[in-house]
Structures are given as structure tokens and as C-alpha cells.
Write a structure and sequence with these properties.
alpha/beta; single chain; 3 domains; five-stranded parallel sheet; Transcription Regulator spoIIAA
Length: about 325
């Protein structure tokens, strides 16, 4: 199909124009490969360098690095970008070979490893020297770290396979985020690709499960328990799915339970749990106190005991599921 591209100057001018009119707060810049990997990476760097050096641009810059580009170009890109990213594209290496044979998983992993190495070296270089008093300076290389993205639903990979791959990527490359992108047909059908879009709610459930892995102390065995078929339920969130599977562990007393167990209560977020732990040192907490601490009481009630509350029925599974469901939503057609 016919391609089009912006010049470096056009991207710079467009970014500055939108930024000055308060239409944007930063630039996310990606590209298909034009001429070669190094040529394309050089153009991406030229945009960021021009914005920073020539125009004093203070906004956020996120650059997509090109797999296979020279390591010296990656090292330069991190000097001007807040964040770098390189897409692994598919959760399964065999699927990458099938759908994008021009891309190699080994090349992508090498790029992620190179970026991690530069980030860690920069962090070490910016630490205060021993014996000197003062704050550590911010790292000069990609201070917002690196991320990646996977396509959801283009191949037959289950949600658990996607999440296992994400957990491995977080551990191997110290990623800040894994992004999930629901597959949508482009109008050029392939017999091997789905002919209908993946529901956005599946993408949403993956983000919720990813959050549980990173911030709530859940491990892959917990998520596997919440998704015994390999697929996360679409009608309820993964934390509620786990709680329903282990309902014999509930209700828990919010005035006595450990932080770990509080984080597993549907409706209690990380900030709410921290506030509960601080507040209960001074008084026994009731439902009104939880409401003031921003807990989602509608979801939490069947799973907690408070100073003035004990659930009369711990939740028949279907009753809790029914109370926790949200109204059905419909995915909009971007071009409809």
C-alpha cells in the first residue's frame, strides 16, 4: 500500500505549534522503517534533538526505538527522550515469525537489553559520590524508563500466556509498563487473522491483571487461579474473580488484617489500604470511615468486617457477581 511520511522539520514544527497552543503536553513519536533501521532511528533522534537543543522544548518526549538500529543510536536517543520503547509485538515468538517474519524476537530483546543497560549505567553515574552530601541528580538517559507493547488477540495466545510474557519482560528488562493493544482488522483481511475486532474489555482486564502483578502483590499462580481456562473473565475484574475462587478466606477484618490481605479485597486500592493501616492505629474503623478513605464500599462490603458491619451472607458466588457487574458497554467504530 502507498506510504507517506513527515520530514524531521515537519514533525518539529507541528509539535511546537500544538504545544504552544496547549493542545498537547508532549510527543509520542514512532515510525515504520524508511530506507533502513539506522536511517529511521537517526530521523527520530533528529526530531527530539531539535526540539530539546534548538527550541528548548520542555514537554514529554517518548521515542519508539527501531529493532536492529545501531546501539550508538539507541544511546543517543535516550539523551533527548524521557522514555524509550521497543515493541515485542506478539506474546509468542512463533506468532511473530508467522505474522511479521521481517522481525526477529532476538533483535527486539537485544534492543530492550541495550536500553536497560544504558538506563542502569546512567543511574549509577548520577548517584552522589561517597562522602558528599546532596541529592542524587536525575538520570540523563531516558529518566522515565522504557516500555513495550503487545497485540492482543491477533494470534491464539491466552491471557495467561500474555501475562506470563509480561512478567518475564518486567523481570528481564526492568520495564516501566507493558502496553496491551486489542487487535482490530485493518480492512486487508488475512485468512490467519481474526475477521472481527477483539473486545476492548479484554484489553482492560489485562491492564487490571498487570496492575495486580506490579502493585498488589499478586503472582502468576494467583492470576492462573482467577482464570482457570486461561482467559480472564470479561464480566468481572480479575481481583474479584480471585476473591470468588477463594471466598473461604473472606470476610476479613479491616481493623486487624495484614496489608497483603487488604490488598486482595475487591474495592480496596493501594492508596485506600495505606490510609486504612494508618487510620486504624487511632480508632476502630467503620463503614463511614472507609467511605472517607475512598474505598469502593459497594464492591468491598461482602468481603470485609468493620467495627459496625458484618456481612449477613458471604456471598453466594452468583449474588456477588451480579452486584459487581457493570452495565454492558459497546465498542464504538472509529470510522462509523
Amino acid at each position: 500500500m502507498e506510504r507517506a511520511r513527515f520530514s524531521v522539520a515537519e514533525v518539529v514544527n507541528l509539535t511546537l505549534d500544538l504545544y504552544r497552543r496547549n493542545c498537547i503536553e508532549g510527543l509520542f513519536l514512532s515510525s515504520g522503517i524508511a530506507r533502513s533501521e539506522d536511517d529511521t532511528m537517526s530521523d527520530l533522534i533528529a526530531v527530539a534533538k531539535s526540539l530539546r537543543k534548538e527550541h528548548g522544548f520542555k514537554g514529554y518526549i517518548h521515542l519508539k526505538t527501531i529493532p536492529g538500529a545501531d546501539e550508538r543510536l539507541i544511546a543517543e536517543a535516550g539523551l533527548y527522550a524521557d522514555r524509550l520503547s521497543m515493541n515485542v509485538e506478539m506474546p509468542d515468538e512463533k506468532a511473530l515469525v508467522s505474522y511479521a517474519p521481517e522481525k526477529k524476537a532476538s533483535t527486539i530483546k537485544q534492543g530492550l537489553a541495550t536500553t536497560r543497560s544504558h538506563i542502569e549505567s546512567s543511574n549509577d553515574d548520577r548517584k552522589p559520590s561517597r562522602g558528599k552530601i546532596g541529592r542524587a541528580r536525575l538520570p540523563r538517559f531516558a529518566p522515565a524508563g522504557q516500555s513495550t507493547q503487545m497485540i492482543v488477540g491477533a494470534d491464539r495466545s491466552s491471557d495467561i500466556i500474555l501475562l506470563r510474557n509480561s512478567a518475564s519482560l518486567y523481570a528481564s528488562y526492568a520495564l516501566k509498563r507493558v502496553y496491551y493493544s486489542a487487535f482490530s482488522p485493518t480492512g486487508h483481511p488475512s485468512a490467519e487473522l481474526p475477521d472481527s475486532p477483539v473486545p476492548l474489555v479484554r484489553e482492560h482486564r489485562l491492564y487490571q491483571a498487570d496492575w495486580l502483578l506490579r502493585f498488589y502483590g499478586f503472582g502468576m499462580p494467583d492470576l492462573e487461579d482467577a482464570a482457570p481456562s486461561g482467559m480472564l473473565p470479561l464480566d468481572i475484574d480479575p481481583k474479584l474473580a480471585w476473591a470468588l475462587r477463594y471466598r473461604e478466606m473472606f470476610p476479613i477484618d479491616i481493623n486487624r488484617a495484614s496489608r497483603e490481605m487488604l490488598l486482595r479485597v475487591p474495592g480496596l486500592g493501594v492508596k485506600s489500604v495505606e490510609r486504612i493501616i494508618v487510620a486504624r492505629r487511632m480508632t476502630a474503623l467503620g463503614l463511614a470511615d472507609l467511605a472517607r478513605l475512598n474505598a469502593a464500599l459497594g464492591r468491598a462490603r461482602p468481603f470485609i468486617v468493620a467495627a459496625d458491619w458484618r456481612p449477613t451472607v458471604l456471598a453466594d458466588r452468583e449474588l456477588v457477581r451480579e452486584r459487581s457487574q457493570k452495565p454492558t458497554t459497546q465498542q464504538l467504530d472509529l470510522f462509523g
